[in-house]
Amino acid sequence: MSASATSLPCFPSGIRSFSASQLKDYLNEHTVKLLRGVEPPRATLRQLGCGLVSKDFLDCSFLYRHTLGNWLLRREYNIYRRLRGLPGIVQNVSMPSSSLLCMDYLEGGRDLKSIEPGELPPEALDQLRNLISAIHARGVIHFDIGHDSNGDYGRETNLLWKNGQLYIIDFAGSLYGLPRPVFDLLAVHDRLAIVKVIRKFFPQEPIDSKDLPTPRQASWLRRLKKL
Question: 196 near 146, Cβ under 8 Å?
Answer without folding.
Answer: yes
